[in-house]
Amino acid sequence: MMIKEAESVREPQAREEVIRWYRAGEVGALFAAGDCHGLDVDGLRIGLFKVDETVYALDDICTHGNALLSDGEMDGHGIECPLHAGLFDVRNGRAMCTPLTRDARCHAVKVEAGVVYIATPEQS
Ligand code: FES
């Protein structure tokens, strides 16, 4: 049977986003010095923030300028940027005051047996 050329060409598959769980480390070690911790995950700087016993993850670089949120101060569920005092809600990345105009990107986090894992997108 002859296949027409148009039928033999496959449509390119849509790129699917795959979640990879990156092992960040043990809760006790990550937060030994405070409730903020920044780390590099395959070239992406991610900030971890602990409120009570819950860990949240955001892109660590402020959306307003070149500052690391993990160098900031926690205020409840807020992380205050050390450069211009912009405040983000660590639960959802929402920019809560000026001079911020853009939210921070959030990353899913899970804690299993005292170890923190961060969901990072991978293109397949
Ligand atoms: S760099 Fe973060 S508020 Fe300006």
From TrEMBL:
> Which CDD domains does this UniProt record tie to the protein?
Rieske_RO_ferredoxin (cd03528)
Question: Where does the record place the Rieske domain?
Answer: 21-118
Q: Which cofactor does it need?
A: [2Fe-2S] cluster
Molecular function GO labels: 2 iron, 2 sulfur cluster binding; metal ion binding
Q: Which UniProt keywords apply?
A: 2Fe-2S, Iron, Iron-sulfur, Metal-binding
What family does the entry list?
A: Belongs to the bacterial ring-hydroxylating dioxygenase ferredoxin component family.
Q: What is this protein called?
A: Rieske (2Fe-2S) iron-sulfur domain containing protein
Organismal lineage: Bacteria, Pseudomonadati, Pseudomonadota, Betaproteobacteria, Burkholderiales
